[in-house]
Specification:
The protein is α/β, with parallel strands linked by helices. The chain has helices spanning about 1-20, 30-40, 45-60, 65-90, 90-100, 120-125, 190-195, 215-230, 250-260, 300-310, 320-325, 350-365, 385-425; strands at about 135-145, 150-160, 165-175, 200-205, 235-245, 280-285, 335-340, 370-375. It folds into 2 domains: about 1-90; about 95-415, Rossmann fold (3-Layer(aba) Sandwich), CATH 3.40.50.1820. The protein contains 13 helices and 8 strands.
């Protein structure tokens, strides 16, 4: 038993230390990322496990030996670190609130009992995150056939939704460095929560590299928007109010989708389809392929961006990397953005995100909100953790605010149009 305590204490201490200072070395960053990812987002669960292991070890006589005492000391040390991680997570709500305060009217407020809260049961038992009350799914709908592949999507929507309901819609784009990943693997806490609050959520695949070359990935995401424009009303969605979200490579593509609306070169064969979106929420995305800040590693620049995704050398064809960079597509007509990134992200450099937000704010006529989360790793939202719950609730408030503002304006526009038609028929009626 004393050796069990020692091994458990050593493993726990190393994992917690790495969570505070994740490994970023060329050979160790992958292990360092996964170890910190689990330790940070499951800190509450890990803390309970540490207490249980210590109690079992003491009950089994492990504390009667020097080795066991050393193990208990290491477990106690890791418990202190886990408490610090839990404290960082508990501050997420305040950080999200500050980000939403940048809305013109301040952070949106909810009346008591309005909207569905993120379920505590999912935070306590993450395995429940795909079992949200009042939510149903429609799976494996083919939205495009291209380059010998069938691209499919899933819908997550309120169980009571009927055709013609005109609910707001969001497209989720998965991450995976443009080379791996599938729908259903990511953003489930967000999609389930949005559906529980009345949204129709579309989770779509796209062609992956090395088979696909940029901008193939972006074109496929716009093909999903074309499917939404034609078919989402059949599932109760409003094709006139579509938003977009995604994490990592999906965050990159979500930002590009929002910033390149209706550009014919990204809509081959469906140039006339309206691919504009009403809001964008990219998570820990890649916003610069040109590495202008010198923050990207050789692994990303040489082996992923140049060899697999763009399939060109930055030094020889810089214009292709500019085309792939959302930061070089910012413009005054960009839709509202809520950008989310953790300050402990070891895969995507934080300075590039800050620069993207700064550049977008300089030119955009719409709100550009930024939530920088203390202690959050890359991919934090895959778990329905305390941090994820607060972020997801904030995103739902942001997106629903955009939806409510649009629906409040629409009746006025329709009334004005009707009045104009009446006035055109009766010259004695003046319209202001």
């Amino acid at each position: 038993m004393q050796w069990l305590l020692l091994v458990a204490g050593a493993v726990s201490s190393l994992a917690v230390f790495n969570a505070a200072r994740p490994r970023t070395g060329r050979r160790s960053f992958v292990l360092g990322f996964f170890a910190s990812w689990y330790a940070i987002e499951l800190a509450f669960h890990w803390l309970v496990l540490v207490v249980v292991v210590a109690a079992v070890g003491i009950a089994g006589g492990g504390a009667d030996h020097l080795v066991g005492l050393l193990g208990l000391l290491l477990l106690a040390q890791s418990a202190v670190g886990l408490l610090a991680l839990c404290r960082e997570s508990l501050r997420t709500g305040a950080q999200v609130h500050r980000a939403l305060s940048d809305l013109p009217d301040g952070p949106p407020r909810r009346a008591a009992g309005e909207g569905a809260a993120f379920p505590w049961s999912h935070v306590a038992l993450p395995v429940l995150m795909r079992r949200r009350s009042g939510v149903r799914q429609v799976r494996n709908l083919t939205f495009a056939r291209v380059a010998g592949q069938e691209l499919r999507l899933d819908l997550t929507l309120p169980a009571t939704t009927q055709p013609g309901d005109k609910r707001p819609v969001i497209l989720q784009i998965h991450g995976g460095a443009w080379v791996i990943g599938k729908r259903r693997q990511q953003a489930q806490p967000l999609l389930q929560h949005l559906a529980a609050n009345g949204w129709v959520c579309v989770d779509a695949d796209y062609r992956l590299s090395p088979g696909a070359t940029f901008p193939d990935h972006l074109v496929d995401c716009k093909r999903a928007l074309a499917w939404i424009a034609e078919h989402v009303a059949d599932f109760g969605g409003d094709p006139r109010h579509v938003c977009v979200t995604g994490g990592s490579a999906g965050g990159h593509l979500a930002a590009l989708v929002a910033l390149t609306a209706n550009q014919p070169r990204y809509q081959p064969g469906f140039e006339d389809v309206d691919t504009s979106v009403q809001a964008a929420v990219p998570f820990y995305g890649i916003y610069d392929f040109t590495n202008r800040l010198g923050t990207y590693t050789e692994l990303f620049q040489r082996r992923i961006a140049e060899r697999l995704v763009v399939k060109a050398f930055l030094a020889e064809e810089p214009e292709r990397f500019v085309e792939a960079s959302p930061i070089d597509h910012v413009h005054p007509l960009a839709p509202p953005f809520l950008v989310v990134h953790g300050d402990r992200d070891t895969l995507v450099p934080l300075p590039d995100t800050r620069l993207f937000v700064e550049r977008l704010r300089d030119v955009s006529g719409q709100p550009v909100l930024y939530a920088e989360l203390a202690g959050a790793q890359h991919g934090f939202d895959l778990f329905p953790s305390w941090r994820t719950a607060r972020v997801v609730e904030g995103i739902e408030r942001f997106l629903t605010t955009q939806w409510e503002q649009r629906t409040a304006v629409a009746p006025v526009a329709e009334l004005t149009a009707t009045s104009s038609e009446i006035a055109s028929e009766d010259p004695h009626i003046a319209v202001e």
